[in-house]
Each structure stands twice: as C-alpha cells, then as structure tokens.
Input
Amino acid sequence: MADYFNWIKAAHIISMVCWFAAIFYLPRLFVYHAMSDDTISQERFTIMERKLYRGIMTPAMIATWVFGLWMVGLGWDVYKTQGWLHVKILLVILLSGYHGACGLYRKKLIDNPHYKSHKFWRWFNEVPVFALVIIVILVVVKPF
Output
C-alpha cells in the first residue's frame, strides 16, 4: 500500500508544481497584456493566455485535486484528525477561486486589455506565493 500511495503522492506533487507554474505565469502575461498597445501583441497575449489557462493550468488543477483527494480518501482515518490538512484544503479551495478569477480576468482582457493597470496585475500575481508558502509549511512541518 505504501508504494501505491507514494505514486499517488508523486503525481499530486507533479500536478501541483505544474499548476503553480501556470498560476504564477498567467498573471505575469496579464501584466504584459495590459502594457501592450498594438493589436498584434494583444492578440498574441490572448492566445498565450488561453493556451496556458485551458491547456496547462486547468488540467493541472484538476489533477492536483484528483490526486490530493485520492490520498485523503486512502488515509482518511489518519487525516481526519489532522488540523493542518483542513487548513491546507481551505487554502487550496481559495487558490481554486483565484484560478477561476484568472479565467474571468482572462476573458475581460480580450475585450479591454487596459481593464486593469499593469500595477494591479503585478500585485495580483503575488497572491499565490503566500498560498504556496503556507501550504508547504503546513505539509512539511504539520504544526497542528
């Protein structure tokens, strides 16, 4: 069972890394999109954002959830009393909301590249950093 569980954990970590890579990069594309003034650049960013969101970010988020819930299901008797896991799941839910917001913002940028300033996007891009730091500390340290 331990070997089987470790394969699921490895898949969870891989999908999480892919999700975070995309969730860090998409708002960075929003920065450049908001700063662009020509139609060719705006169209290029629209395509890049769509491919990243639909082709990498969303499948990676789904895989992260599937493998994470699979692990929780396999070890529920142990995990149900782990407070750190409950906080981690709450943060992942909030991060999934951030993911959804990225999708909505992506669509708004298509119609109006200057919907928000590049400074807004730079700050927006920092939100998942805090989630990642807290999640890693929770999983590794298990403070409660």
